[in-house]
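Troubleshooting log. The previous structure file for this entry was overwritten by mistake, so regenerating from the original sequence record. Sequence copied from the archived sheet and checked twice against the printout by T.R.
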Amino acid sequence: MTEQPKSLVGFPLGVVFVTLLAVLLREWYVLVTQVDAPIRGDIVQYMAYAWNLLEHQTFSMTHVASGLPPPDAFRGPGYPLFLAVPLGLARGEGPWYPLALQMQVALAALTCTLTAVCARRAVSAGWAVLAGLLLAVWPHHIAATGTLLSEVVFGFSLMLALWLNLRALEAPSGWRALACGLVYAYAFLVNPLAAPLAFGVAALGVLRTRNVRLAWIAALPLIVATGWQTRNALVVGEAQTHPNRGLINLVEGSWPLYHAAYNSRHAHEEAAAIMQDIAMEERLIVEDLGSGLSAMATRMSEAPVDYALWYLVDKPWLLWDWDIRIGAGDIYFHEVRHSPLETHPLLRALKSAARAANPVLYGLCLVIVAFWAGRAMVKRSWPQPAELHIAAGFIWFTAIHALLQAEPRYAIAYRPYEMMLVTISLAWLTRPAIRKPG
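Regenerated output below.
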């Protein structure tokens, strides 16, 4: 009689605390931090798409002085649609930028909420609150809220889809599966890497429950993806002037020196030469896939052990490492001033502690995933549904970025999976130490 009411009251209070703390830290960051040139790099493209959607009803990142910009499909429409909301509300003028940041604050805080709620399906209330708390105070996630890039929105979409997915598994229904599929469909429009995850979790759900209605989790992303590709074929077609981003990422991700060369390309001739070699390989693979893959294979055959370690060890860790490679460095994409994570002693200490703990958290994730994999192979015993779906997200995004591009900025969207796995791992590791009284 005492434990259950305590859990019923304590967990919601814990979730409220996590949410309020997440809002406080992110509001503090976006209101105090000064960002030099906030619209630059990839953000310029996202803003061009959003502006052209509002002004010309055309999905294009091309700026034109007159007439209609040519449509393209270099990026997905999910995040530009998000940016079009504050732009539209401000009618292209006024405080659209702070409004966009406030929208990201709300979604980032709700991501922390959903992380705790999803973790509760796998661990006790205290561990679940810890999962949300870890994300709420995680420096990368705080700093990303003040940057107009897709990671915060993508991460929220993934956690909302996971929550709806777990609800659909608990009480399978067509409406719950449709809601989950709809969120995964939007996540696909933000980042295409969401679609294979949706197919995977839908298959797991159907196999486990024998309820075919859960196939809607995959059907809606498939319908949206098909519609998007049809649009590209009909509207963009041969007029597409932008190369395939997936192939470019495949080439860039195969060069261990890519990030260092990119950042030093204007200062060192050797770095510039490496970038030229990468650009040649990119053009080759876009123009002739077979020749491009052959060139990559020839290069890798000269150091097969080094490249094997690069893909199997170095790149998976690179995704979850600390310093952002393409950007200002440390946890920042932009050059910033007066960040409370640097100026306030408590937050500065928290950032230092998070940096020291980062490899440990990654190791805890590997421990629990390895344990589940070993148990499945030896005892044919699978994790519980929540555990399996959390692990599926972590494994999928780690594996695909190990194949394509990997850098800590991308992991911002996936940190909720990491924090949930960390608490699951800690709960499992500490369980043998618990002894009943007497």
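Residues 1-5, 433-438 have pLDDT under 50 and may be disordered. Archived copy saved in two places this time.
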